[in-house]
Amino acid sequence: MKHLQLLFTLFICLFVQQSLYAQEQLNDSKSETFTVKGLVRESDNNDPISDVNIQVNGGSYTSTNIGGEFRIDVRIGDEIMISHKDFETIYYKVKSDEDIRVEVEPLVDRSYIYKNKAKENSFESAIDSALFYKKISAEKSIQFITESIPKSTSVKQNAEAFEVLADVYMHWKQYDLAVTNYRISLNNVKSNDVNLKLAKAYYNNKNYQESLAIYNSLKSESLSNWQNVLRQEGLGDVYVKTNQNKKATTAYKEGLKVATVNNIQSKITDLNSKLGEVYNEEGEKEMAEDLLENSVVLAAKENKTREVEQKVKFADFQNVNRSYDAEIQTRKEIIKDIDAIEKDSIIDNESAITKQKQNYKIGNAYYLQKDYEEAIPYLEKSIAEADKREDLIVKKDATKKISDVYLEAGNIDKARLAFEEYTKTVDELYNKKEQEIAQAARFNKRIAEKQNRINSLETDRKLTLSQVELSDEKNKRQQLIIYSLIGGLLLLALTAHLMYKYIKQQKLANNLLALKSLRSQMNPHFIFNALNSVNSFIATNDERTANKYLSDFSKLMRAVLENSEEDFIPLEKEIELIELYTKLEHFRFKDKFDYTIEVDNTIDVDAYKIPPMLLQPYIENAVWHGLRYKEEKGLLAISISKKRIGEIEITIADNGIGRKKSKSLKTENQQKHNSKGLGNIKKRVSILNEMYKDKVDVFIDDNGNQGDVGTKVVVTLKKD
Predict the structure, then answer these.
(1) Residues 304, 307, 312, 318: is their CA dihedral positive or negative?
(2) Would you kindly state where each structural domain of the chain is located, as residue ranges?
(3) What pLDDT shows up at residue 523?
(4) How far apart are CA 534 and CA 525, in angstroms?
(5) Span 138-169, pLDDT tens digits
(6) Which residues pair with 288 in a beta bridge?
(7) In the CATH scheme, what is the homologous superfamily, with its name and number, of domain 566-718?
(8) Do residues 592 and 625 make contact, with C-beta atoms less than 8 angstroms apart?
(9) Please, which residues have CB within 8 angstroms of residue 255's CB and are 6 or more apart in sequence?
């Protein structure tokens, strides 16, 4: 290493962190110790430099091994001194927990200028650029990774490229693609860090058994203290999702023990919080409250944002346990804290610590206490803040809640106005979601194209390496060509498999979005029809009847909206809903029909699930288009009976005027306009059957052969 002069470049993996997070970590420099990894090498030939002295000023000391690598315990803000007899001492200030890379290049007159220009197009430069854009632009980041792969000169670099690619997919919530690329990285080089990331990717992708298998395969003795904490926390998270709370408690306690001994402050806070949530699930309220309260105290020692996040979890605990006064006080403190945070940073709408969400929850807590005068101002603040931040989701919830408050308080006019605002917000949200679906489809298509390009480059890279080896071993050329072709075919097969998996998952995602869109149309349609009934009573000055009807109607609305986000609900809930709805319709048309609802006693209604609001449109059609026009009093018969093992039959039959006569009574315009409710039901049933393998079947026919034949709807439902 003759005539060496220091010309180093410090590259830190995951180069750009969110400004808020970085500031918070700087504030926490005195409390948390963690292990940072580093590498020292020559840049011109990538040779590692061993026996380099690595020392934290006034703290830990270590040296690089034969591979030029080192690990050292540091805090944010510490200064690391990197010294060796062959180059000038380097001083580096710790700003995050990311890896440090130190490169030393020889200076040979002006030839360094050309080497430096060549370095701009190196593998490391492309990877650093990818890390820079990771949280800014997924497409740019992936493009730089695509450029880095042909420049890879070792399996270690190849593993690093695919690890960074998987990290990018994790950040942008493309968990299936993250799993694929972490596995490719591990196929190149085994790494505990990458295994932990793979387990987390499986968890986020809801592959809980695969995640559990990875965590269990890692041995504690081979992991650092930080990695052991991550492993135990990950195990606990999986056990919670698989309803194994006792195992989750054990895992979290093991992780907390390691974090406490090694003063890993952020994880001490997180594990206290998670343990509290598990104890709350198990009914141990006092223990849960102590842990969650402790997590707030611990988070306050880190930074203000962490403290507020834990306060929100504590307030949610108070809400679940109906400690509404305490919850209100906690959330009022949170709003003051948010004002302090927003002076230096912007809080995203997706965050739990937004003022619109906290004001909404305060208003909801007052509503649950039936303190309507106090609830209204906070709900109004939530709506105003949501308007300002363009948060349609919170605005939707807040306008619906304030409508409920006015309704409970007896202010029908304001309740109606608030509900009209709610329906307008639902329509705006629906349009916004449609745009987001289109944008997501385009984004996913572009990401898939780039992933295919990377797979192709990886294939080309391996084929190129094979050809280089063939030139050195001519006697094995034929055999190596065969192996290379087989490798290429396997990679093509892998690409085809990934594309199939990707298309399948995108189809599932599109189906879920379509279901949400249909549900968002269904509720306003149903509510509009029901409010027509209320309007009729009000128009006839029948105030007592209107009030009684509104009381039952509000119960029905609450049940409908509680179920509106679910694909399936228990059959028992759907039965309660249609009983309440049929009661309301009979309340209005007592002179037009009677009704019966019969449920076979041998059916275990808890064992069956059904799409919410599936039966109501058929009952509505029976009343409004069949029985309402019948001259004498009709009958609506609803029955639930067992068809065969694991399958039941729900029949909605009326002896009304029948479909043919009902159609003849419609105007020409009405005949052109099909029922929106029934149309949505058909679409929902079609999508659900595609997703859940023909779980629901609907058959509509005449109910008889002569006269007022009526209509019969038969819904066949299979057990999960």
Answers:
(1) negative
(2) 11-120, 566-718
(3) 55
(4) 15
(5) 888 888 888 888 888 888 888 898 999 999 98
(6) none
(7) Histidine kinase-like ATPase, C-terminal domain (3.30.565.10)
(8) no
(9) 228, 229, 231, 232, 233, 236, 267, 271
Residue 536 is which amino acid?
S
- Count Cα neighbours of 343 within 13 Å in the Cβ-side half-sphere: 6
Backbone conformation region of residue 390, classed left if phi is above 0, alpha if psi is from -120 to 50, else beta: left
3 state DSSP class of 380: helix
Round to whole Å and give the CA distance between 623 and 630: 10
User: What torsion, rounded to 10 degrees, do the Cα atoms 421, 423, 426, 431 define?
Assistant: -100
Q: Are 379 and 402 in contact (CB under 8 A)?
A: yes
Q: What is the pLDDT of residues 634-645, one digit of tens each?
A: 899 999 998 888
Q: Which pTM does this prediction carry? A: 0.49
How open is the CA angle 135-141-145, to the nearest 5 degrees? 140
Please give the CATH architecture assigned to the domain spanning 11-120.
Sandwich (2.60)
Alpha-carbon gap, residue 304 to 25, rounded angstroms? 11
The candidate with the shortest Cα–Cα distance to 617, out of 652, 589, 584, is: 652
The three-state DSSP-derived secondary structure of 90-144 is EEEECCCCCCEEEEECECCCCHHHHHHHHHCCCHHHHHHHHHHHCCCCHHHHHHH
Q: What is the DSSP letter of 718?
A: E
pLDDT tens column, 434-490? 777 777 677 777 777 777 777 776 666 665 656 555 555 666 666 778 888 888 888
| Phi, psi values for residue 188, rounded to 5° | -85, -50
Residue 608's identity, in one-letter code, is: Y
* Two structure tokens written together for 475: 């006697």
Six-digit token string for 113:
């200028």
Q: What is the DSSP string of 520-554?
A: HHHHHHHHHHHHHHHHHHHHTT-HHHHHHHHHHHH
- Give the span between the Cα atoms of 524 and 145, in whole angstroms: 47
The answer to whether residues 626 and 711 touch, using CB atoms and an 8 Å cutoff, is yes
- CA 27/CA 456 separation, integer angstroms: 45
Q: In this structure, how many other beta carbons lie within 10 angstroms of the beta carbon of residue 632?
A: 8
DSSP 43-93: TTT--B--S-EEEETTS-EEE--TTSEEEEEE-TT-EEEEEETTEEEEEEE
pLDDT digits (tens, 9 = 90+) for 274-301: 998 988 888 888 898 889 888 888 888 8
Other beta carbons within 10 angstroms of residue 336's beta carbon come to 9
Identity of the residue numbered 146: T
Averaged pLDDT of the chain: 79
Model confidence at 551, in pLDDT bands (50, 70, 90)?
confident
Residue 375 token pair: 């609830």
Q: Are 463 and 488 within 8 A, CB to CB?
A: yes
Q: How far apart are CA 280 and CA 547, in angstroms?
A: 39
Q: How confident is the model at residue 27 (pLDDT cuts 50, 70, 90)?
A: very low
